[in-house]
Amino acid sequence: MMPNIFNSRLSIIKIFKRSSALFINGPKATDNFVYVTPHIDFPERIKHKDLLKSELCKRHAKNNLDKLVELWSVYEELKTRKKELDEKKAQVSTELGKLLKEGTQGDNLEKLKIQLSLLKENIKKIKVPLWSAEEMAVVESLKLPNGLHPRTPDQNRDILFQHSSPSPNNKNHLEIGREQDLMCFTKNENYYLLSDLAVFELGAKFHFSNYLRQNNFTQFSNPDFTKSLVVEGCGADYTNPDSTFILHNNEDTEGVSGSRLHLTGAASLYSFFAYHTKNVLYSKVLPIKYFTIGRQYIPSPTEEDSLFHVSQSSVVEIFISTRNSAELDEMLENVIDVTKELYTQLGYHFRLSLIPADKLKMWESLRLAIEMYSSSQKGYVEVGNISLSGDFISKRLMFTYTEEKQYKFPFILSGTILNIPKLLGCILEQNTHFVVPEQFKVENWRGKH
Amino acid sequence: MFKSCLCKPSRLMGKSMQFKYFSICNFPDIDTNYYCDVKNMTEIRQNIQSRKGIGNIEKMHEIYNLLKSTPIANETYKNLKENLYKELACLPNRTHPIVKTYEEQPHLIHEINKKKDFGNYKPLEFSEITNLLNLMRTDKLGHTCGNKSYYYIGELAELEEALIKYTVSELLKENFKLVSVPDILSSNVLQSCGMMINTDRTQIYSLDPVHHGPDLYLSGTAEMSLAGLLRDSLHDTNNLPLKLAAVSRCYRAETSNVVEERGTYRVHQFTKVEMFTVTTREQSDDMLEYLRGMQEHLFSPLGLHMRVLDMPPHELGAPAYRKYDIEAWMPGRSNYGEISSCSNCTDYQSRRLNIKYYDCNSEKYVHTLNGTACAIPRMLIALLETHQEPKGKINIPIALQPYFSGKQFISKNSNVPKLKLLKIK
């Protein structure tokens, strides 16, 4: 019964291996508990194919849009075919029921019976390829990066603001830390900050925390673990040990692939999204502004040892949900002001710049980098960042709000507004002798009230 | 005083001492003079029994005797020696003579602060308070961040920060040296602190060995990371005692179904301020009293009713020689709950980690001690349950107020909306 055109195209489906913790369908959905099903907006996005293509090009993204279109059409065709069969089956069933009720006998009845069993068989037959086609199309479309914000530069970074100027010298923070006995650095995965540097770490967190509270941000204290589905929802490859630390299976997750625990750290986008996944808010509560101070764990990708590449960082993370892109843009301005003020107060050279499209993560539509100069690197280091992701992750993890009895997806601004080891590395290289900045000193941990 | 001895052990140590533990041919310098002396057998057997710990002194002696009669050149010698050290490593530390007399019950040292009188009001439990005031989320988090996860929200998260500021400020006044520690450690550091990696697998989280390498574990307490920092170090007597403090995240895989440990009483991850000290062998008894005094000094102004306990032998972990616990009264649960402990580990850890001091031309093993300065989840339980008001607010102890933006109480949080789970899948 299956039309021939499918046969050749279906062959590509068979070689498909599952690779999503976020989207689970068909028989796998009975093996695994499906907590959330992402909202897929590919059909809407592909309506503006040229825009999508040019954005992928600006990002230097490797997604094969034509292949995705093809997969999606196979899926749509099978879906339509299944729908037709279902409708036909319903129609035949009704007719058959009518005849049986009337007590009619004869050829017509037998014909309908045969037709119904054939239809049932065909529906059964089409299910497996349909599930495969759906899985392929959806999983491939989940790999599609976010759209670009109009302010994201095509090529070079766009410097928005600069405070004082760099004072280049030849200092290296690791050497200074060692000479002054302030640091014990074994490797990127294992380092200790001693005495004043440890005070610096806490003091920096407390100072930023205090300032954010004064600016109506609400404080959170989050868990450090997140599950694979959240990691994938936030646009990272949950199977890649270079992107998150994966915990050893314990009895908690045994047997359920794609549902591992990841050590991401409390102060991360993952942790805030783990909080909001599959939850609804009322429109009137938005926008909401949250922050947290805590750990962030990211596997160190490089052999080069320094505070700029450590896998454990104390950071300050912010998370803002808004109703729409206009409100999001407004919030970005607000956060830029907060950032300028916080960093200007510290008195060191820094700059704020917008990162070009090809440097963005797949979930970002725009990134503002907070950069300080490092003498040892002879270049700028991103000591913090602010990202816009719009409704991209909200759709994947079903973070929703209701407005006029409709479900909508909040637009998100998030970011590590301060990465303390990176800030510390830059500051160490600017001083002759390290002193804890005034704002971070223990005497100032007690507020002035 | 913090200097040189920590990061550059080689500068201070002879070459002969730079061996690596737990490799095939080198063994920790466990006190064989004591453990292998037949005269001490009864005492050691008695000690294992009263501590209800593991360890088999008979088996150890058997191997020891066999080893003594085996020539070094014999091929079984190496194997025997390995087995001997395996047995030796299981044996617990000695027990303080006074503690030996306690039998099963802890000895009450004294009580601090009176129990608060709530009159006719029946005080609520922590989870009920946080629910009413919208200060914490624990429900439906299993699928996104694992079992027993919790989010402190708004002023409860602020209170966590205030407690850390308060505690660390007080410790710095006492000249503790602050250290920021790594949370991912290798197994030999954990083992040297008395954690049994293989038998206690469920207590410790580890990273996926295929993806991240075979030997990485999440620290259960900063004590482990601090001990790791001091490994292979030699200290000048004049620099002792060395007092360290750290604020860290602690990860514990253990689960509990005991009703008394419901809610956030026992959790998989939490923030803790920890004290760790290094002393000469003569100083450690006094240092333990000092650490206990420090804990009392930190907790008393918080207005909690507490009892200070000298713990009986069976409550001591293998490394501890003596341990004090402080239990706070938690009125909502109507029960005491342990909020801190401090232990004198004498030379149990230093022998395994090779931490020594230089005294009158000879090198001796230091004594190490550790104590909780503030473990957040239980401290928050004790604080909220003790200082709750019937009208739905929580008073903040005066000592904490300067670190809490000067606020005198916590009230209902209306900045963070309550969530509703989406019905559709």
UniProtKB/TrEMBL annotation, chain A:
Tagged with keyword Cell membrane: no
Presence of keyword ATP-binding: yes
Gene Ontology molecular function: any one: ATP binding
Pfam family, one: tRNA-synt_2b
Domain of life assignment: Eukaryota
Record-annotated Aminoacyl-transfer RNA synthetases class-II family profile domain positions: 208-437
Gene3D superfamilies reported for this sequence: Bira Bifunctional Protein, Domain 2 (3.30.930.10)
E.C. number(s) listed in UniProt: 6.1.1.11
Coiled-coil annotated residue ranges, if any: 75-102
Keyword tags: Aminoacyl-tRNA synthetase, ATP-binding, Coiled coil, Ligase, Nucleotide-binding
GO BP: seryl-tRNA aminoacylation
Entry similarity comment: Belongs to the class-II aminoacyl-tRNA synthetase family. Type-1 seryl-tRNA synthetase subfamily.
Protein name per UniProt: serine--tRNA ligase
From TrEMBL, chain B:
GO terms of biological process kind: seryl-tRNA aminoacylation
Binding of ATP, residues: R252, A253, E254, V267, H268, Q269, F270, E338, I339, S340, S341
UniProt cross-references to PROSITE patterns, sorted A to Z: AA_TRNA_LIGASE_II
Stored SUPFAM superfamilies: Class II aaRS and biotin synthetases
Keyword terms of this UniProt record: Aminoacyl-tRNA synthetase, ATP-binding, Ligase, Nucleotide-binding
Gene3D superfamilies: Bira Bifunctional Protein, Domain 2
Superkingdom of this protein's organism: Eukaryota
Principal EC category: ligase
PANTHER family in the record: SERYL-TRNA SYNTHETASE
Family, as annotated: Belongs to the class-II aminoacyl-tRNA synthetase family. Type-1 seryl-tRNA synthetase subfamily.
Name of this chain's protein: serine--tRNA ligase
Gene name as annotated: LOC112043518
